[in-house]
Design brief:
The chain is α+β, with helices and mostly antiparallel strands. It is built from six helices and four strands, in the order H-H-E-H-H-E-H-H-E-E. The chain has one domain. A two-stranded parallel ribbon has the order 1-2. Strands 3-4 form a two-stranded antiparallel sheet.
Length: 148
């Protein structure tokens, strides 16, 4: 989903420069994207964004929380055939998930849902339990209606 002012405001360049400056400083220990990570249905926006970040930024822990657009591109049900229902987020942003405590094997994810039936990814896969010493927390997505 394209932003109509993307080129006018040079969002990609300005945002990546800002993150490189702030997160790349010694004052920041980790950073987070808290919902609606990217409206990327084709898989080209996310790699382009991260390619513009410095190695110093990429070496710092990144937490992400899925927002409603990380489930449904238009933001809500009934959705479209190209909605990723949280599966794209969980696989692209591999993190310490609550599911890793319950799978019984080495997988940190719960793939029990069926995206072909419009079932959302398991809430245990979408809830995070980051193991950062400076941030003991449990991160739960705000839009959890319909999650198992």
């Amino acid at each position: 989903m394209a932003c109509p002012n993307e080129w006018r405001f040079e969002m990609l360049d300005h945002l990546s420069a800002l993150i490189n400056k702030l997160v790349g400083s010694d004052d920041i220990d980790f950073w987070a994207i808290t919902g609606d990570n990217f409206y990327d249905q084709r898989g080209d926006v996310v790699p382009e964004f991260f390619s513009k970040l410095s190695d110093k930024v990429k070496s710092k822990p990144l937490l992400t929380v899925p927002g409603n657009h990380d489930f449904w591109i238009m933001g809500d049900r009934p959705g479209t055939d190209t909605d990723n229902l949280g599966y794209g987020w969980m696989q692209y942003y591999g993190q310490d998930t609550v599911a890793s405590f319950h799978t019984g094997d080495s997988s940190p994810y719960n793939f029990s849902g069926d995206p072909d039936k419009s079932e959302l990814a398991s809430s245990a896969t979408l809830c995070l339990a980051p193991s950062l010493e400076t941030l003991p927390s449990l991160v739960i997505p705000g839009r959890t209606t319909g999650l198992k």
